[in-house]
Each structure stands twice: as C-alpha cells, then as structure tokens.
Amino acid sequence: MTLTSHPHEDAAIGGDLIGGEFPFTRTDFRHIARMLHADVGITLSEAKAPLIYSRLVKRLRVLGLRSFKDYCIMVGQRSGADERRHMATALTTNVTRFFREPHHFDHFKAQQLPDLVERARRGGRVRLWSAGCSSGEEAYSLALTILAAMPDAARMDVKILATDIDEDMLERAGDGLYSDAAVAPIDRELRQRWFGRSRARGGERVWSVGEELRALVAFKELNLIGAWPMRGPFQTIFCRNVAIYFEDDVQARVWRQIAPMLADDGLLYIGHSERIVGASDFDPIGMTIYRRSPPGAA
Predict the structure, then answer these.
(1) Domains (ranges, CATH) in the chain?
(2) 152 catalytic residue (yes or no)
(3) How far is residue 294's CA from residue 59's CA, in Å, rounded to a whole number?
(4) How far apart are CA 97 and CA 222, in angstroms?
(5) pLDDT tens digit string along 98-146?
(6) DSSP 239
(7) % the chain with pLDDT above 90
(8) Would the pTM of this model clear 0.85, i.e. be above it?
(9) Is the predicted pLDDT of residue 207 greater than 80, yes or no?
(10) How far apart are CA 143 and CA 159, in angstroms?
(11) Known catalytic residue: 55?
(12) Which of 164, 166, 281, 292 is the catalytic position?
C-alpha cells in the first residue's frame, strides 16, 4: 500500500484554505494527517493537503457534509470508525503488478525454491507471507512460481499468507479476476495452465485464477503497525514498497517484528527503494534481499 499523487496535487498551499467546493483549513489537514499516521503509519507533509482534498471530497459529497471540519468530527468519533477506514483507503493507492521487481522472483526461484520443494515433498511445512499484498498480484506471482516447479503444491502443506489493510483490495484479490493487460507479464504457458477465462461483473472477458492457484493463497486483513495474530515461522517474506512510507522509527519497529517471523534459513525481500539500516536482525545477501541474522549475532 503506497501513497501517490499527481504533480498538480503537490502544489504548495496558499493561505489557510484550499479553494474548492468545501472549506479545508490547515487545522482540518492536521487532524486528518494525525489520524492517518495513527491508523496506518503514513506521515503526510502539508504539501500533500491538495491530495487529501481531491481524494476525500468525494466522501464528503457521498455523506452529504458541508465542510472538512464536519468530516473530521465524524471520523474522530467512535461511530465514525467505518468512515475512518474509508478515509485511509481513499488516501492510499495500491500500486502492484504480476512479477513486479522480477529479480526477486528470479532469486526466490533459484536460491530458495528448490529447498522448499524438497521440504514439502518430505511432508514438511512451507509458509510464505506477502505483506501489503494489495489486489493479489504479488501473492499469486509467488504461487505461480511454486506451481511451475511443483504442480501438485496445492496437495502439499504449502501456503501463502497475503495480508493488506485495505478491505476493498482484499476483496478484489479474493475474486481473482484480472484483465488481459494485467496478466501480460505472466508466462503464456503458466497463464494457460493456472488461469481460466471468465467474465467480470461488467461483462468484459477477464482471466480468472484457477482452483490450484487459489488454493495456495489465503487473504487476510492486517495492519502492519497493529497487532499480528499469526505465529510463523515463514521461509519467505515479501514486504515490498510498504515500509518506505513510514517514519524511520515505525520502519524499524516493523523490521524488528518481522525478524522473529522468519525461519532460521528464511529470507526477506523488500522494495527496490527500501533499505534496512541500523538493524542487527538481518544480513544483506543481495539487492534488497536479507537473511535473518544468526541468534546472538552482533
């Protein structure tokens, strides 16, 4: 889950108001920014105020409110918890695609997957985690990589946990319906074998995730800065392009929480713009690829 904007949304604020349909003051901005930081760990500078306005103005219209002050009052109350989740969804954009940052999947296939296949065939437990899975492409890419090496993986003790804070994205991921353009990065043979053809609600023809592919992935709602109910350990964790939007202390806390979730031989894959700095929990072994440090390592 990432926060993105268009260039015109990044313009500096003039005065105390953003001109538009609804009054929006610096006080309104600060209230919303504080709530977003508390809920999902994302920090917004005042330069993002036009982005907030443009993203939330639709919610004000839907709710029949007259100002952002009224909106802040609503989402600040216990009765406004559902709308507060809508707010977080509106202010974050999920950017993903199949086999994004392909060097990670190449490394996983060459360096980890053979051992995981052997473990599974011996009756062992294999667990992977896609943290910040958005609409499912990353998790399904991992599942496709596994199925290419072990077509009967769905009958083994192999599971991919895919988590995200956005309920709408998780619903889309669970539907498993993707356009021709979305599945273009997938090898044609894999696509033909593990997907079917279907129709979306609007009637357009789409690719539908097949039963074996779907069986490997479990989608769950999870806030990375909240409580983590799962226990692990995971042999592989993909946590990519999520932590970069957190402040340094929040990033460090996330990495510290991830470390004990990894198996002793487990690997962590992070985003191409991310780094783990000043943490003794991980050793870098490749470009944005980390291994959990041995117990007692300095």
Answers:
(1) 7-90 (1.10.155.10), 102-292 (3.40.50.150)
(2) no
(3) 49
(4) 20
(5) 999 999 999 999 999 999 999 999 999 999 999 999 999 999 999 999 9
(6) E
(7) 59
(8) no
(9) yes
(10) 9
(11) yes
(12) 164
